[in-house]
Design a protein that fits this description.
7-stranded antiparallel beta sheet; 13 strands; alpha+beta; 35% helix; 322 residues
Amino acid sequence: MLSFLRRTLGRRSMRKHAEKERLREAQRASTHIPAAGDAHSIITCRVSLLDGTDVSVDLPKKAKGEELFDQIMYYLDLVEKDYFGLRFMDSAQVPHWLDNTKSIKKQVKIGPPYCLHLRVKFYSSEPNNLHEELTRYLFVLQLKQDILSGKLECPFDTAVQLAGFALQAELGDCDPAEHSLDLVSEFRFIPEQSEDTELAIYEKWKECRGQMPSQAEINYLNKAKWLEMYGVDMHMVKARDGNEYSLGLTPTGVLVFEGETKIGLFFWPKITRLDFKKSKLTLVVVEDDEQVMQEAEEGKEQEHTFVFRMDHPKACKHLWKC
């Protein structure tokens, strides 16, 4: 929370930037939110926030996910909480969203401490509908992580523009007398960041002059929302033909990729069945063409069944629950 407040004030010199970095390092020590009771009646959950800081929360042993989620939301003073969730990894390194209605201990098997990560769960298709500046800031942090990790693929020109907005939001106007090109190299924006990339980012940052941090963040989000894989949750599967495919869950439907090529989109209204059994996922889709429309008028409907397999039953269940 303190890092957000410091960011909104802006840092406009190398000296202030260095001061900010020192404060950030000091914040790496985990914040601790205690609970009443002795050590035998509580559990400790460690939540990694999007700014890289940690919060340790003590809760009753039978606490449900909602209690931990509400503690984190209260700590951040986050109003638009429906966009966010807490995620954890199981012993098979399969990610899961914490179910707020169920016991924490029954879901997170590794611990104590029980380690989770605050993440954006639902990406807004229209960032201008995000009312709170803190919400937009957390969205930017999430997208920066997604791009840097390679999870969200981003064309070079777009990545450079986004990095320029990010620097403007973080540091304010670029003053060549105080901000050298070396400053850009202190930040990581894309997986393979070269000197040429940093020069291009530096030039884009200078073009953002005059934008307030909040405006730079809005510009960042409005640019990022047009990325093809924005907000898409990808899952690797194998089909009956033995080939590997990727299923991308979106608000519109289920995207199907073969390698880097998009080969299909199943719209949610056309999906009549989606279930799983062990590692097998079954998807039943109603065909949509002129011939089928005629048959539908005659009371007939053409359905196609797609069967996919995943590496682990828990991964299959996770996809189904998403």
